[in-house]
Design a protein that fits this description.
The chain is an all-alpha fold. It has four helices and no strands.
């Protein structure tokens, strides 16, 4: 029986998505600290941050060229909460 080879880990696109999530969370934190955060702003900002966190996990073994040319189906799939992360 052949062993399935894992694709290489891709820290470049992981870093990019983590940076986006962190930037969004920092904006939300700063607005909250100034007492200027509204609920709809929190919702949209958290959705944006979650999207990038989900992407960071789901694309961890995707090549940079595939990521750069992603389809709408990949965008939708990679943006979802990871199904296997609970088992770690």
């Amino acid at each position: 029986m052949a062993t399935k080879r894992r694709r290489p880990f891709n820290p470049r696109i992981i870093e990019s998505n983590l940076s986006e999530a962190i930037e969004q969370l920092e904006k939300l934190r700063d607005c909250a600290a100034r007492r200027e955060l509204e609920e709809v702003q929190l919702q949209v900002g958290l959705q944006h941050a979650y999207h990038h966190l989900n992407f960071a996990w789901n694309v961890r073994r995707v090549s940079t060229s595939e990521y750069r040319n992603l389809t709408q189906a990949q965008f939708d799939r990679w943006g979802k909460y990871p199904s296997g992360i609970e088992n770690l």
